[in-house]
């Protein structure tokens, strides 16, 4: 759909939120996953992460059951975030597209709690602090 006048510029989504989550385990090991439409991915799956992206839970669950996908999108920390071109589907591995990757050293963490506590701003898409995953970081969906 790129270049179609009514769709908008490539990669444009009003008030879009990309995200990466880091989980630190009791033993010090670190897991990572990236937000990807309706779910989370670590690396592109056999169908390019589309099962998670489209909310196709039976397909996603089947991939996880046979080891083709990490559980709930959690995988080994890679220090890498790839945002798919013309989209906001992310993964933590894959083939980068120049200008659409974020390497670990270029990401700066900003605590959202102070913003969430006082913000009355309106957004086209719910900000992270208004999503279920804010209260339960293990949840499978991004809404």
What attributes characterize this protein structure?
three-stranded antiparallel beta sheet; 4 helices; 18% strand; alpha+beta; 143 residues
Gist of the model:
By secondary structure, the protein is α+β, with helices and mostly antiparallel strands. The chain has four helices and seven strands.
Helix content: 10-25%
* Count of DSSP H/I helices: 4
Average pLDDT, all residues: 77
Q: Name the beta content range.
A: 15-25%
| Residue windows where pLDDT falls under 50 for at least 5 positions | none
- How far apart the termini lie comes to 25 Å
Largest sheet: 4 strands, antiparallel
Give a topology summary.
Layout: E1 20-24, E2 30-36, E3 39-41, H1 50-53, H2 57-65, E4 75-76, E5 80-83, E6 90-91, E7 101-103, H3 113-118, H4 132-135
Antiparallel strand pairs: 1-2, 2-3, 2-4, 5-6, 5-7
Explained architecture:
The protein has 143 residues and is an alpha+beta fold. The chain has a domain at 20-107. It has four helices and seven strands; from the N terminus they run βββααββββαα. The chain has helices spanning 50-53, 57-65, 113-118, 132-135; strands at 20-24, 30-36, 39-41, 75-76, 80-83, 90-91, 101-103. The strands form two sheets. Strands 1, 2, 3 and 4 form a four-stranded antiparallel β-sheet that branches. A three-stranded antiparallel β-sheet has the order 6-5-7, with no helix packed on it. The longest helix has 9 residues, at 57-65. The radius of gyration is 16 Å and the shape is globular. The two termini are 25 Å apart. The model has no long low-confidence stretch (mean pLDDT 77).
